[in-house]
C-alpha cells in the first residue's frame, strides 16, 4: 500500500519528535468476504431482539439504547439497525473499537469501503495515518477509542446527511456516556457539526477547544480528518494536527477537573 508515511516521520524528526513515534501493533487484515458471510452473527437464544420487528426502517428501542449497560450490550442492540437508509447498503456495521475506558475518544465521519468490509473503524489509508498520528503522541490505537458519527457506510463515501446523522446520534452519545472520555478529538467537520452544532470551517476552528455539554462538560479538540491530511500532505497541516493531538493528550493526562474545559 502506497502511503507517504516517511514524510510524516520526517516531519516529526524535523520537530525533534522522532523518539515519540512507535510502530503500532500489527493490525489484522482479514481478506474481504462476500456480504453474505461478512455480516456479524445474530444473537442467540435468550438474547433480546436487536430491533423492533417492524420491517424496513426498524430501529432499536431508543429507551433500551439510552439504558444499555455496556458497549457490548449497545452493540448487540444496534447491530441490525435499519433506522436510516444507510443500513440497507452496508456490509458490516462499524460500531467502533478501542479501550472502553479510554481518556481520548476520536470521532470521525463514517465508514469507508475498507471499514465496511472489515467492520472496523479507520482501517484504510486514512486509518493507517491515524495510527501514526496517535503514535506521534506516544499512544497506540488500543489505548484510545475510535468511532464515527454514522455506523454504516454512505454510498460512494459521500458525507452522511443530517437526517442520517440524527438517526445514528443516540448510539454515539451512549458510547460517550459509557466510555466517559476526558477529551474528545473530532476528525473533520462532520463530527463537530453533529456533536456541537458547529458549522465553522474546520480550517478556521481546528485547534480551538470546544465543550460538549454531556457528563458535566467534555473538552473537544477539533482537528483535520486523516483523509484531508493525506490530500494536503504539507508540513503545515501535519504540524497543526500534531499540535492538536498533543494538546488533547496533555489535557487528558493532566489534573484538569471533570467538566472543566481548557482555555
Ligand atoms: S447509520 Fe446508524 S442509524 Fe443508519 S442504519 Fe446504520 S446504525 Fe442505523
CATH superfamily assignment? Uracil-DNA glycosylase-like domain
Supply the helix-strand structural class.
Answer: alpha/beta
Instruction: Tell me roughly what share of residues is in helical segments.
Output: 25-40%
Q: What is the CATH topology descriptor?
A: Uracil-DNA Glycosylase, subunit E
Rg, Å, rounded: 18 Å
Q: Quick one: CATH class?
A: Alpha Beta
- What's the count of strands? 6
Would you identify the regions where 5 or more consecutive residues have pLDDT less than 50?
14-57
Biggest sheet strand line-up: 1-3-2-4-6-5
The helix tally amounts to 12
What's the number of structural domains? 1
Oligomer description? single chain
**Largest sheet, described in full?**
6 strands, mixed
SSE series: HHHHHEEHHEHEHHEEHH
Content of β-strand: 5-15%
Distance between the termini: 40 Å
Please write out the topology.
Elements: H1 5-14, H2 35-38, H3 62-66, H4 71-78, H5 86-89, E1 97-98, E2 104-108, H6 113-118, H7 125-135, E3 145-148, H8 162-179, E4 183-187, H9 189-196, H10 202-205, E5 210-212, E6 218-223, H11 226-231, H12 235-253
Parallel strand pairs: 2-3, 2-4, 4-6
Antiparallel strand pairs: 1-3, 5-6
List descriptors:
about 260 residues; alpha/beta; Uracil-DNA Glycosylase, subunit E; about 40% helix; binds iron/sulfur cluster
Short description:
The protein has 263 residues and is an alpha/beta fold.
